[in-house]
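Design a sequence for this backbone.
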């Protein structure tokens, strides 16, 4: 058996929600990654290097169409006041496709936005690309199933 192509996830049905649960419908792309920092270890009796995990970090990017100034205000808090604390929130990232084997939802916590771009260009839509870091991740839903099992809803014609 081979993989059923319809199970491949299309990002068009993805969502990202902010710390208040508001759907950021202007989001065009969200990426995140977990980086495990490590230390190389030279080991006796072998040429192979060993590795010891030393710390872990989370980072990502949110790319969206500019519709409001909400993210400008969140990111610029530190610049506007020496006493203002930096914004810390969360993002719920959802990956969904009606043809897929389910949905994946991941809650990123301790989210801090570090940079925002401004400006515009005549004749072009304005987009924001906002890098962020996060300190926690909690899988809520996961996609699972047999990618080789044919779809039930596609029955052969008689």
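Sequence:
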């Amino acid at each position: 058996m081979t993989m059923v192509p319809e199970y491949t996830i299309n990002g068009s049905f993805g969502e990202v929600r902010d710390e208040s649960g508001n759907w950021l419908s202007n989001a065009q792309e969200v990426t995140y990654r977990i980086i495990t920092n490590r230390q190389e270890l030279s080991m006796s009796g072998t040429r192979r290097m060993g590795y010891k995990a030393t710390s872990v970090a989370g980072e990502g990017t949110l790319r969206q169409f500019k519709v409001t100034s909400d993210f400008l205000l969140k990111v610029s808090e530190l610049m506007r006041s020496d006493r203002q604390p930096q914004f810390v929130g969360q993002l719920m990232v959802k990956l969904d496709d009606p043809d897929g084997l389910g949905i994946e939802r991941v809650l990123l916590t301790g989210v801090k936005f570090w940079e925002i771009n401004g400006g515009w260009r005549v004749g072009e839509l304005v987009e924001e690309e906002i890098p962020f870091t996060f300190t926690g991740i909690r899988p809520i839903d996961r996609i699972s199933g047999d990618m080789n099992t044919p779809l039930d809803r596609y029955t052969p014609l008689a």
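The chain has a mean pLDDT of 90.
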